[in-house]
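=== Structure Prediction Worksheet ===
Name of assembly: unnamed complex
Input type: mixed (protein and possibly other molecules)
Chain count: two
Listed entries:
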Amino acid sequence: MSTTRTRSASRSAGFGGTVAAEWTKLWSVRSTWWTLLAAVLVTAASAGQLAIYAANANTNDDPADDRGIVTVGSVLVDSMELTQYAVLALGLLAVTSEFTSGTIRTTLQCTPSRGRVLLAKAVVTAAVTFPLGLLLGGVGVLVARPVLGEWGAAPVADTLRDLLAVATYLALVGVLALGLGAALRSAVLTLIVLLATLMVVPLSLQEPDITVLNRIADGFPAVAGGHFMAGDAEPYPALAGLLLLAGWACAALGIGRAALRRRDA
Amino acid sequence: MITLRGLTKRFGRTTAVDSLTVDIAPGRVTGFLGPNGAGKSTTMRMILGLDRPTAGQALIGGRAYRELRHPLYEVGALLDAKAIHPARSGRAHLLATARSNGIPARRVDEVLATVGLDDRAAAKPGRTLSLGMGQRLGIAGALLGDPPVLMFDEPVNGLDPDGVRWVRQLMRRLAEQGRTVFVSSHLMTEMQLTADQLVVIGRGRLLVDAPVDEVVAGSAVAVRVRSPHPDGLAKLAERLTAAGATVEPAGPDELTVTGATVDRVGDLAYESGVRLHELSPHGASLERAFMELTADSVEYAGVPGTVGEHR
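=== Predicted Assembly ===
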């Protein structure tokens, strides 16, 4: 026990301190690395598979299948439907693992402001998932390009735009998963709600192909993100898709913050 | 200084903590005693801003925990020794804790040394830590910010006798340095050795807030009297009964007296001219005082005679 007090030392940790703590926590467990590895493998497999489908559609005997030359970026964007789950795990585990292990109490003792804790986690999640998205995009392109062969095109500017869009999408759904995790506390429950929100519900709405239901589905985060990544002009501009997705992420954070503030830890 | 004012916590219809008003002063070890389910942990969690009080408030140095910017410099607390991520090393756990409040990393090594965890132990993942090591790690975490207020929930659980003695000495030393030390325990004997002041609760209500000595002295003390003269002993028994004490024979040459102090029994023996070979207080422990205090407020009282019965 040192009798000399350290209280005067660097007291201005503030928000940066909370972020540093979250960063330390994320990288001090091996599951983070496994999740990254899984994300890379899933991207490679998914992009490869979709590229094979695209090439095959152009070379089989049924002319109705012909898609012509597709961009590598579009294959990459489509592969995100599966890849995103590895990234979602990163976001939701950042908070649900704290409830499982009981460390949430330590975290809130260190930083009593619930909003600050959640925002710091969001910053760290986004700071990891965005560059991860760029990496995954690179992997997807490297795998899809040779598989597509003559049926693929990779104009540099468009491909870079797709890479950035994918990275942005993954960062936002990562934060969405984090906010939901803070509200629901259980990893399994959070994953179920995410599956429903990102896939099951919008797919069910789109299934009968009724205009009004399609419009509703367009409001869901993954569909909005899909329009953003594809650079669609219909049913709304790509930027609107981005804003919609960002809105979902912010709303999830808000719900998570409210839950953290209201409920006993 | 920890100040509790009408602190109340209700879970549905259950009142876990019932308008607790206590000051926990600096410079001494305050033992926080109560049977299981008395509300000790809930009270500590409310002090740390983890549970929201239904009514009343808990203040540290006059401020609510949630208002503290860098709380580790103000309050250090060990709540649950097992609260570490199963895959994270003890050292990384402390490092993250330190960084959150801008505490320099070298302080992590200092507190690890203080609690006697070497590099190998600190590198082990959480799931492999024994309860005792977890307690030491938790205490290390509480000491990180060198805070003037310290709280420990059952800190000697899972420690070996050496560890228990070490914790006892640490608490004493922290209090001697002028800090507020608030320790919960269900081990009454441990508190008798460690604490200066006792706060006893039962069913969430304050039963006692007094110095340890006073609590022990105030408990019903039995007095053991031994004499080589059976006749004299009988005479003394008569005098004692006349004086309002309860006397029970404990053997051919021995009496157990309740309802009279050792001094009083000694005086009466002298007045009666009875030669004594032993006159001693018996069972005057915190344990006994505690049982008496909480007799009416035990949440999970065993029902005698139900074990082994087939219903």
